[in-house]
Amino acid sequence: MNAFISRRADDGSFCSLEDELIHVWVGNANELRCSEEQIQALLSPQERQRSAAFHFEADARRYRVAHALLRNVLSRYLRIEPAALEFTVNAYGKPLLAGRELAFNLSHSGDITVCAIAIGNSIGADVEKIRTLEDLSELAAVSFSPRERVQLEEYLGVELLEAFFACWTRKEAYVKARGEGLSIALKSFDVEVDPYAAAGRFCEVSGLSGPNTWWWANLPVARGYASAIVVENSPPRAVVLMDWNGPVSVK
After folding, report:
1. What's the distance, CA 132 to chain centroid?
2. Is residue 251 part of a domain?
3. Which of 11, 60, 133, 170 has its C-alpha lying 20 to 30 A from 206's C-alpha?
4. Residue 194 contacts residue 149 (beta carbons within 8 Å)
5. pLDDT, tens digit, 9 for 90 and up, residues 92-114
6. How crowded is the C-beta side of 165, counted as CA atoms within 13 Å?
7. Tell me, what's the pLDDT at 84?
């Protein structure tokens, strides 16, 4: 684990977040110590309706866990009931907390959900289950920059998959941090491809406005998963991984 990344178990208490810190909550749908009724109780009517629209129950449950984690976690920082949280979206559809300084970003893949939280700075998070992809070359051709594709050719077998998903999660986290949606082409900027690299700043971001002030870090969230966060401005003083055990009542 990176020296600046620590891990803390969830004790169900209120949370506070200082400047220059990032909390990243990690939930595993197969390891929750809470009931389906508790999860459902945290969701909004719209979220329960969307969950019911999934064709496969496994996908529906992952969606419910992800959004229950988001509501439960944010309620602990804001000291309000999960159901009282009000969300809005920016011009590109990125979810935000209405009238709040707290920034967050949610991602889930397989059984793992990641929710990154910061104060003031824009933040993005992504997690992907590492898996065989028959169209890996095609995906890299349309989503990775020329520099990234050259670097990817240095890897074979399992390391190729790890490098692909490391690159993918870093790029997705960056796009999500900027909050500009599909207006940013994934192949228009470079990230580090090396899956064993821990953290750093982005290479030159071509074709995008604004200074190049974005920092990324790998997240060791679970075996068999790649995950990364991206934050604007300076690297945080520390990143704390928080293991989510399930909902608690917020009074």
Report:
1. 21
2. no
3. 133
4. no
5. 989 999 888 899 999 999 999 99
6. 19
7. 85
**CB–CB of 230/123 below 8 Å?**
yes
- Asked whether residue 80 is assigned to any structural domain, the reply reads yes
Domain that holds residue 83: 5-243
- When divided into structural domains, the chain yields a total of 1
pLDDT digits (tens, 9 = 90+) for 105-153: 999 999 999 999 998 778 999 999 999 999 999 999 999 999 999 999 9
Identify the H or E element spanning 64.
Answer: helix 57-78
48-56: list long-range contacts, CB under 8 Å, 24+ apart.
Answer: none
CATH at 46? 3.90.470.20
Does 121 reside within a domain?
Answer: yes
Q: Tell whether 250 is covered by a domain.
A: no
Q: How far apart are the first and last CA of the chain?
A: 35
Put simply, whether the predicted model's pTM sits higher than 0.85 gets the answer yes
Q: What is the DSSP pairing of strand 214-218 with strand 87-89?
A: unpaired
**For the purposes of burial, counting CB atoms within 10 Å of the CB of 88, is it exposed (0-12), middle (13-18) or buried (19 or more)?**
exposed
Residues 97, 180: Cα–Cα separation, whole Å: 17
Q: Which residues contact 18 (CB under 8 A, 6 or more apart)?
A: 119
pLDDT tens for 33-91 read 888 999 999 999 999 999 999 999 999 999 999 999 999 999 999 998 888 898 999 99
Per-residue pLDDT reduced to its tens digit, 179-226: 988 888 899 888 999 999 988 876 555 555 555 678 899 999 999 999
- State how far the alpha carbon of 212 is from the alpha carbons of 96, 122, 179, 203, in Å: 23, 14, 15, 8
Q: Is the pLDDT assigned to residue 23 strictly greater than 60?
A: yes
